[in-house]
Amino acid sequence: QVQLVESGGGSVQAGDALKLSCLASGRTLSRYVIGWYRQAPGKEREFVAQITWSGLTTFLSDSVKGRFTIARDNAKNTVYLQMNSLKPEDTAVYYCAARYSDSTLYNYWGQGTQVTVSS
Fold it and tell me: How many helical (H) and strand (E) elements, i.e. helices and strands, does the chain have?
C-alpha cells in the first residue's frame, strides 16, 4: 500500500510559479514510480510528469516540457512538481499517483490539489 498526499496548489496569475508536493508513505517506496496527472473541468485526465523513486529517470509531457520540472527528496519521501511560467490552460486539479516499477498502471492516487491560473 502507498498513501499519497498532495499540497501546494493555489490561485496565481499567468507567468507565475507554483511548487506542488506529494508526500508518499508505505513500504518499499524505492520500487515505485511517482507521477503527476491533471484534470481540467470537462476534460480527461492528462499525464504531466513522472519520476522513478530510487533513480534519476524523469519524463515530462510535451505540454509542460521546458516549464515544469519533477524532482524527489528521498529523505522526506516527497516528490515535487515545480511549475514555472504558468498559463491559464494549466488550470486543473493536479493528482499525484504511484505505480509499481514493473507496472504500467497507476493504482495509487492522492486526493488532488487545485491549481488555478488567471490571465
Answer: 0, 11
Residue 90: phi and psi, rounded to 5, are -85, -5
pLDDT tens column, 29-66: 778 899 999 999 999 999 999 998 775 788 999 999 99
- Looking up cell 519520476 gives 51
Q: Which residues contact 99 (CB under 8 A, 6 or more apart)?
A: 32, 33, 35, 105, 106, 107, 108
pLDDT at 18: 98
**Chain centre distance of CA 101:** 17
Residues with Cβ within 8 Å of residue 24, at least 6 apart in sequence: 2, 3, 4, 32, 34, 77, 78, 79, 96, 98
Contact 79, 51 (CB under 8 A): yes
Handedness of CA 25, 96, 29, 17 (dihedral sign): negative
Residues 6+ apart with CB under 8 A from 34: 4, 22, 24, 50, 51, 53, 72, 79, 96, 97, 98
